[in-house]
Amino acid sequence: QVQLVESGGGLVQPGGSLRLSCAVSGFTVSRTWMTWVRQAPGKGLEWVAEINLRGDSTYYSDSVKGRFTISRDNAKNTLYLQMNSLKPEDTGVYYCKNEGYWGQGTQVTVSS
Fold it and tell me: What DSSP letter does each residue of 19-77 carry, written as one string?
């Protein structure tokens, strides 16, 4: 059974940092591309970051490039999103996904 479980969200002040985790079971993260997407309140889904199968290439939306870092730990079968210099516009629910499989999401709120 495939499961993706996100954690690490919370309330943070502008300029702060959070690290999101996505624990995966049912498939191996090192054998596939993995993606983070987010949904801001009242808006549609936004692609945020992606890591390739080999883990040697990463891709980011222009809105997060230079501030967010996607990575994975193959031994833990876990995907991460390190988020630095957070802005209020980064507020939303963050999901990890692989093809048709999605986690339940974790809420990130950036506010003073």
Answer: EEEEEEESS-GGGS-EEEEEE-TTS-EEEEEEE-TTSS-EEE-TTTTTTEEEEEETTTT
Q: Which residue has the tokens 């999605």?
A: 102
> Could you tell me the two tokens for 23?
């624990």
Contact criterion met (CB below 8 Å) for 6 and 80: no
Give the CA distances from residue 61 to residues 20, 32, 38, 41, 96, in Å, rounded to whole numbers and listed in that order.
Answer: 17, 20, 11, 18, 15
Three-state secondary structure call for residue 14: coil
What is the full per-residue pLDDT of the chain (112 aa) written as tens digits? 999 999 999 999 999 999 999 999 999 998 999 999 999 999 999 999 999 999 999 999 999 999 999 999 999 999 999 999 999 999 999 999 998 899 999 999 999 9
